[in-house]
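WP5 quarterly update. Target: Type-2 restriction enzyme PaeR7I. Source organism: Haloferax massiliensis. Length: 246 aa.
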Amino acid sequence: MFEDLDSRVSDVVQHYYMTLSGQAEEHEKSDNVAHGRRPEVLGGQQMNGFAGLVEELLVEAGVPRDAVKHDYHATLPGYYRHEKEWDTAVVYNGNLLAAIEYKSQGSSIGNNLNNRAEEVIGNNTDILKAYEEGLFEPSPAPWIGYLMLFVDDDESRKTRSLREPNFPADDEFQNAGYIDRMELLCLRMLRQRLVDGATFLLSNEDIGINGEYREPNEELEFERFARSLVSHVQAHIDHEQDTLFD
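Structure tokens (predicted):
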């Protein structure tokens, strides 16, 4: 399952940039796209290729395909709001096992980076509180995942000044570029257990069209993210099945 993971992630990164450049249909017909993914998952929006890859990894681990839901079918109740449409949710036998968001950041980083941070922190706080208040009973604690594909160029690497009219910003944000800030967000969410898995990928149009990407932080590698997700979901499904046949 994980032996060819690098090449499968490469395919999805390529699909993302092919979609941006209007070449996605040609790419989907080529041998570069891993076989077996549902066309309606792979096609459409740029990040849907990641949803397709996650689905295939779960199915290969024995998770029923109809338990892996996307977009509208992955809508879940919240605590501070009535509902949210997640990118992927795993719901098996009435149990919520996982909820995942896939995001990308290209141009206009300065305007969008704080919005991304507010969005993911709010979403994850909301779903965890919903679980604590029993909205998903009798589900176990769901596995929460966040994936970010971030642009890697001179602009995103450049050191940014901070506005500190009242108090100094955290030391970790001093002399940091946009890439550093987003990596720190992902890492802190993971270490503070606001997510169970976070992955941070870097690429750009010049290299991404060939499927090239890099992972700057070992703790945020896609393989760790995928292994943790699959292990969590698989363990709960195995437990359900063992209980059924006891």
